[in-house]
């Protein structure tokens, strides 16, 4: 995870310099890591090679590696693989807010752990072209120039996921692990970034301004959660910590890192400009507080493949039936807020069944 003010190098750290993912998607570098690659492309290539080695090792374990990418904004969540293959371009967040059926990705805030579902997943372990597809998805992220950064993220965060399924043929069980690469939005001084404008009431129709305003709000919620969680543990509380008072999806998506059940590395990026000393101090303070979170990582449990197939099939059947009822009762998909959830469940179930099918 990369954290810091706008223009401090978060995206460079996570993915590489501007334009590199477009060139990578065009196969300019092939499938070998280049010196300018950030953490994600290096991680993808290394993990893909390792998974292929494990699958060729002749053990009782077989692996399937899938990738997805999601951009989270204040008005919704965008499947970046779909966005890239529809021609890319800037997401119309106002349209996304009013047309709920376009929000293909959903967040389950009730499940433990919390997770995103409904996003497109592509196999990486046996199809090289899908590696290029994930690079293309990253290249279409939503950016815009401001007074502080000529390529500033206009969403709360960009998350790229690698999900690894391991099947043990001796026990016919499956275990799932997730690698999560998160490029957080950068905090920005609205006055400097938007030509002296700081009042959201008079700038509500300026999408660029509102994106910066909402990004600051999301980061404030994250900082508040980290500080309250540290205090909660310091008081000796070991029970369940509720995230329900935090109003942004970002906090829920990072919940495993925050409660310490997942291994997490955070890169705090700083500006070298003297005028940004205050923002650098704030970023360092966040990193210091984050380092005080309790770390208790635990491996995911093995589950019977047959049981997973039954559960996925039941979810698929139920979601299809519920989707049909919702569309009929509302007179159209766009009018029913439950339709996106059902569609996402259908996508999730089908993709899981496809993965399990690869294990025989």
From TrEMBL:
Swiss-Prot/TrEMBL keywords: ATP-binding, Microtubule, Motor protein, Nucleotide-binding
Residues where ATP binds: 4-11
Single GO cellular component term: kinesin complex
One matching Pfam family: Kinesin
GO molecular function: ATP binding; ATP hydrolysis activity; microtubule binding; microtubule motor activity
Top-rank lineage group of the source organism: Eukaryota
Residue ranges occupied by any Kinesin motor domain in the UniProt entry: 1-293
GO biological process: microtubule-based movement
Keyword RNA-binding: no
Family according to the record: Belongs to the TRAFAC class myosin-kinesin ATPase superfamily. Kinesin family.
PANTHER family from the UniProt entry: KINESIN-RELATED
Name of the protein in question: Kinesin-like protein
Species annotation: Triparma strigata
